[in-house]
Design brief:
homodimer, globular
Chain lengths: ~425, ~425
Amino acid sequence: LSPHQSHLERYAELAIRIGLNLQPGQVLYIGSASTPVPVELAPFARLLVSKAYDAGARRVFVQFQDEQISRMTMERAAEEALAEFPLHLARMYEEAADNGAAFLVVYAPNPDLMQGVDPKRLTTAARASQKALVRFSGKLSNMDFNWALISAPTDGWAAKVYPGLPSGERTEALWRDILYTVRADNGDPVAAWQEHLDLLRERARYLNERRFRRLHYRAPGTDLSLELADAHLWLGGENDTPGGITFVPNLPTEEVFSVPRRDGVNGTVRATMPLNYNGRLIEDIELRFEGGRIVDYKASSGYETLKGLIETDDGSHYLGEVALVPVDSPIARLNRLFYNTLFDENAACHLAIGRAYPPCLEGGTAMSKEELLRHGLNDSITHVDFMIGSADLEIDGETANGERVPVFRAGKWAF
Amino acid sequence: LSPHQSHLERYAELAIRIGLNLQPGQVLYIGSASTPVPVELAPFARLLVSKAYDAGARRVFVQFQDEQISRMTMERAAEEALAEFPLHLARMYEEAADNGAAFLVVYAPNPDLMQGVDPKRLTTAARASQKALVRFSGKLSNMDFNWALISAPTDGWAAKVYPGLPSGERTEALWRDILYTVRADNGDPVAAWQEHLDLLRERARYLNERRFRRLHYRAPGTDLSLELADAHLWLGGENDTPGGITFVPNLPTEEVFSVPRRDGVNGTVRATMPLNYNGRLIEDIELRFEGGRIVDYKASSGYETLKGLIETDDGSHYLGEVALVPVDSPIARLNRLFYNTLFDENAACHLAIGRAYPPCLEGGTAMSKEELLRHGLNDSITHVDFMIGSADLEIDGETANGERVPVFRAGKWAF
């Protein structure tokens, strides 16, 4: 694998024990229907499988893909074929979720994979996948089962993050970053995680007590007012399934997040990082909102891809998540662009276009789509984060009586 | 990949054009539900995908697996979980077959993969897979769609075939063998295949004209009388789908084959090669038949695996195929044990336990299971070849009037 065998083992164990909190007798799927594990990560997948059986997994299924083959498909398959997603595969994942399985995704896309491929074809394929998996994604957003998103370096991704290093050293450098961000490189990762989760819980508790009605964002290119749903909840780090399994859906995670009101976002916002979406990079995103809806958008490159994302469905014209991450978070301190949302979103405040997380509303996980909408929560077949944090960002919280309280100053927590 | 890039490309092209005869607009699945492509063969899979799109594939799906993970599953999953096969996966392949897809399997099992794993657990998993895929396998046996079985070396398999070579040279040596056996290493592989297929067609035509009632096998440890089904057909090389696609289901292929009568096999037979089945090796197989049924069996090693195979179902106590291959076939002349049925079966006369191929009976592909049985054809959820050819083998054909005609002498065609 790489020199850090013992760190890798710790990381795999963290993914299974802290991330998933895999229960004895649970079936585990590694790789999802839309995000299989890249074949070059098979050695790391073996470690995960081994740790899962150590934890008492009933059976582990691993779905692999080859990125170059995925690219050939996007380039060369018949256009109509891209509009079809294998429904049996979607049903397999749904049924597994219904039957109590856990799901682990190793998210490691190559940011340049689809360079030169017609964005319309990519959008066609992405929509087909999102539509086929809408029920599965809904259960995932609802935290109906324990799942986790982790990562591991591929050569293609490492080349993008470390273009200046000799090719033989890039993957190891990226491994080092990943192991640092998931706290697998120090003496007692489990204790480090407990401490970290306590801190996130504390931040969320404070924000929940303040019950802000609105957040006001100010930064170069950004002047945004974002109304929070009335019964909103701030979450951070851990989630619970209805059955009572406490899990940490993202490793790493530095964010405290909640739900905007679908119709309560106004003003402009400028992204502070490029966005790797659907195998393409979108740079210098700027969005303008009126009554919650994106009424205008720009990008210096990847405009067609951004357009494809925003025009996915009606809900992709609205926000579904608001997340706070200070610029002095461990990942942010690396001061490195990872071109991977799992890392970049944990280095900066962000917003998400698309589906809201029902657990971010009191009683939300038990509500129908219609009830959630009545409470102001957005729905969509997609959910895509984009980063807006920087050292220039200031955020005020507006309380019910109109008082404005500093939440972020110079990109960091103000309390 | 290896030094022979141009030969590999020819091989991939042969697999798509001669093996599958992939039609423009056809969907192609590479790797089956029970035999996905080993992840280490991803570079070769990319070549196949590329050649498939060159031939006009509508879309190509590739199913991968990691052998070490498969082994962990067989060792460590819950026993009850091994008895379950993901039915949605089976339905996905069935539906694709119903909708006119083609299927390419890259068959490259590591013969020692499951060494030390409880054969009962392997048998449980194999039966679950065979049961789930019985309809798909039936369509495949019936040649309802175009499919092909090819191969490529993995490190584990190459180590078994070439234990005496330095580890860095084994895979290349096995590639060389494979490219030789599939005629991809000479000037005009397509012309070489046309000539070879003509020869197999000629052998089959001769045997079909003779209309032998029985074959008599004599060799050390073998004294077997095998009755052929009344309306039997000898086939070799090519097959046709009902829709008229002519394809070559095995690359390499050297055999001319037909169907025994299920109840017409009597005597004893000794295998001349070890059999790699289900990740284990079975050595020195001896079988005794009465009225077609295996009434006694032995093996010097792998007895439990052989028992698991023969006790799969009722049909696995009977033969489903009889195949003739001379000891001077190109593969046999390599004088090497490949521990891979695709190669070993094309180096030696063999028989198959289990399901018969309906195309080996006049009108068979249009018959129901009951009609096929009435015509003497065996049915089972399994079909496994075992090799009985050697330079000592003599085979006589017995005509309708009782005349005995030499078919094989000293392991070679006698006409």
